[in-house]
């Protein structure tokens, strides 16, 4: 009778899910993160196995990426801005309490996601930015140190030698496609016939992570050093709740990666979680969140991961030249170690 019940249950789940990830439908706890950041997933899983909370797990996982400078786009020594400085953005969200801690344009402090948690736990605020975020971090006991490396200095020097190409300026003079600033606004606005498409999938790999506990508790976190050659002070989607990530223990979690200047306008992580709240399976929720952006920006670079409170998960990405598959990491009791998975973009 037990075997018969399990067979019927498997058939029901297969009918309900109708996606590639049904085999993991009810495996909790769960850790899932963007890109092939294996050590980050293992660090988060280890935190859970040692009795840590889901918030501990996502902080530990993102901190691991900060230490390893994952793909040069997380942590110190990567993505120098127009002044050659590396600055950091990060956030955490507690899906039980809906508390958020976030920092952006953080300077001279390596552990951005740790500072974000300090914002959550030691202030009544949600978001602290710029030099004030650094002062706050120092007051909380974080070490101040140079975030530049030989690599980031070389990237910046080469960019200057190439007349500051590429950059994120428009409708200014001198012509930003040919020279460096300082820039002033043009009296007459214009739109280039062929948008520059500054975001390169191979060099912009923000980590977004979701952890779901054995009882359905949800937390999410992100960490990044942003877009290479960004205008100083620019903040993308990563530290913005609902854009870079979102967590709600009544529904699930989501985290996004890609062209944050576009993606943050649509709050894709919030949308995906809300869709799951209303019954959508994770893969479907991810695809719908991407489709909403794609309607307005068909060639944008972006992807999203989603997970619900029963352990179901999925991912989706927008297909564009050079980006046809999106890799992500998963750990749950059935894998018991980080497992690389990929989804075809659409």
TrEMBL record:
Top-rank taxon of the source lineage equals Eukaryota
One matching Pfam family is Asparaginase_2
* Any Gene Ontology CC annotation: lysosome
**Gene Ontology terms: biological process:** proteolysis
Q: Where is this site: Cleavage?
A: 205-206
Q: Which residues form the signal peptide?
A: 1-17
Please write the reaction equations for the catalytic activity of this protein.
N(4)-(beta-N-acetyl-D-glucosaminyl)-L-asparagine + H2O = N-acetyl-beta-D-glucosaminylamine + L-aspartate + H(+)
GO MF: N4-(beta-N-acetylglucosaminyl)-L-asparaginase activity; peptidase activity
EC number assigned by the record = 3.5.1.26
What UniProt keywords apply to this chain's record, in alphabetical order?
Autocatalytic cleavage, Hydrolase, Protease, Signal
Q: Where does substrate bind?
A: 234-237, 257-260
Give the top-level enzyme category: hydrolase
Q: Active site at which residues?
A: 206 (nucleophile)
Q: What function does the entry list?
A: Cleaves the GlcNAc-Asn bond which joins oligosaccharides to the peptide of asparagine-linked glycoproteins.
UniProt similarity note: Belongs to the Ntn-hydrolase family.
Q: What is this protein called?
A: N(4)-(Beta-N-acetylglucosaminyl)-L-asparaginase
Q: What is the lineage of its organism?
A: Eukaryota, Metazoa, Chordata, Craniata, Vertebrata
